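Hi support team,

I submitted a single chain yesterday and got back a structure, but I'm not sure I'm reading the token output correctly. Could someone confirm the output below corresponds to the sequence I sent? I've pasted both exactly as they appear in my results page.

Thanks,
R.
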Amino acid sequence: MSESIFEEALRVVNTDRRKDYGDIKQSLDRTKALWANYLGIDDFKVADFIHLMILLKVSRAHFGLKRDNYVDICGYVLLMEKYYFGEENETEDTSNN
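Hi R., thanks for writing in. Yes, this is the structure output for that exact sequence:
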């Protein structure tokens, strides 16, 4: 049996992308800062970036059921979990991120 969409997203986030792009938190913080600067929004958060990327994938899914879009949606949800709800953040206040 091939891996599920969720299993594929988990593998990609935890291995492939981490090897390609480094630490998840640093990567998301860097991307958030770039988007905030580009958009001119001081209180732009990592959650805003992730939500917008999920919406991009939902928009693309309008043209057909392509597995990759759903793998990416799950991957963004996993990134949200790791950034805001991961073990290292259990005692941190991430409301400003």
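A quick pointer for reading it: The radius of gyration is 14 Å. Let us know if anything else looks off.

Best,
Support desk
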